[in-house]
Amino acid sequence: VSLPDILHSDEELSRFFDESNRFKRSTAGDYVLPKAFEPKFDLERQRFETSLYRTVDLSDQDVWELAKRLVEPSKKKPTLGCAQLQCSAVTSNGLHAIADEPPERHAVIVGWPEGDEKKSERKSLQLKLAAAAKPKFVSKQT
Amino acid sequence: MTAIQALRWNPVFLPETGVSEDAPKMGRLWFTYRAIDNSLTRGLSVVDLLRRIEEVAEAARVNDWDGEGGVAVEPSAVDYAWLFASAIPSHLPEPDISVDNDGDIAFEWSAAPRKVFSVSIRRDGVIAYAGLNGADEEHGSSVIFSGLPARMIESISRVAS
User: Fold this and answer.
1) What digits encode the pLDDT tens for the residues A115-139?
2) A92 Cβ partners below 8 Å, 6+ apart?
3) Most buried of A8, A122, B16, B70 (most Cβ within 10 A)?
4) What is the Cβ-side half-sphere exposure of residue B3, based on CA atoms within 13 angstroms?
5) Are B20 and B11 in contact, with CB atoms under 8 Å apart?
6) What span, in angstroms and rounded, lies between the C-alpha atoms of B71 and B99?
7) For residue B44, what pLDDT band results from cuts at 50, 70 and 90?
């Protein structure tokens, strides 16, 4: 399936995680922690980016297969789950989600405030993205 | 050995938090008490926090520790994280501790998606923080001199309650 280059505002995005400090399980409801959206500085592109995948129109099974095929080989760890949010949650916080293939369906969140002195602003944005996201966990049968 | 490094091995060198003549003595007594206090009944245990800092730093002691180009934690970041941890009031719940991909050491308290407070400690002692409490947001930077700013303690208390 070929996705359009421009992301639609209601398009679903998934940030895969393989560490338990990306989410919290609670009797009141599981939720995503800010760490899940931590941007990293890309030396080549000279900007902060958060890597994620466009999982629009994919079943849960397809989402985990995507992770297994495209994410796990480089991380060398099993995927625990993902944080899912709509593209509009990114843009409403002044950030942008742009297509970044290959690999297929890959996208990045860009527009993060840059520089050491702006770290608290980046953290604040991470908090807001995490609050807008919903966690989804790999089932044991997968 | 710097003063902060010395602190890790000899807790009596904690920077003072008061201004009276007795403050240095009280500061030393306070830290010694906090460092040996491992009681579950008082909630947060400084010893456990310090142990946790060492664990996460050890796991991130070389570049690319996360397979995504993560910057190695520098010893000075660990020193400052120790200082920060030892100044957390014991009535606060234990934070999650981790390493950011830029080598900072992060402390995070959360009770719900919009009740979160996160602090990152840099290798030069600068702390970047951000909090979300319902509709209220805050973020900023500070430097570890002595103790935690009262405003930060209040914010953490609010989100962790």
Assistant:
1) 999 999 999 999 999 999 999 999 8
2) none
3) A122
4) 7
5) no
6) 9
7) low
Q: What is the pTM of this model?
A: 0.84
Cβ–Cβ below 8 Å for A131 and B101: no
ipTM over 0.95: no
> What residue type is B33 in one-letter code?
Y
- Closest in A32, A33, A124 to B137, CB measured: A124
**Residue type, position A70, single letter:** L
Q: Are B98 and B82 in contact (CB under 8 A)?
A: no
- Given a cut of 60, is residue A64 above it in pLDDT? yes
Q: Which of A27, A75, A123, A126 to mutate to test the interface with B (most CBs of B within 10 A)?
A: A123
pLDDT digit string (tens) for B75-111? 999 999 998 998 888 889 999 999 999 999 999 999 9
Size of chain A in residues = 142
Between the CA of residue B158 and those of A33, A39, A67, B131, B136, what are the distances in Å? 17, 27, 37, 10, 11
- Chain B positions touching A135 (Cβ under 8 A) are none
Contact between residue A107 and residue A52 where contact means Cβ atoms under 8 Å apart: yes
- Tell me which chain B residues have a C-beta less than 8 angstroms from the C-beta of A113: none
For residue B28, name the pLDDT band (cuts at 50, 70, 90): very low
Contact B137 A128 (CB under 8 A): yes
pLDDT category at B15 given cuts 50, 70, 90 is very low
B9/A82 Cα distance (integer angstroms): 41
Buried b (16+ CB within 10 A) or exposed e, B136-156: eeebbbbebeebbeeebbebb
How far is C-alpha B118 from the chain's CA centre? 11
pLDDT confidence of residue B41:
42
CA–CA dist B23, B44 (Å, integer): 23
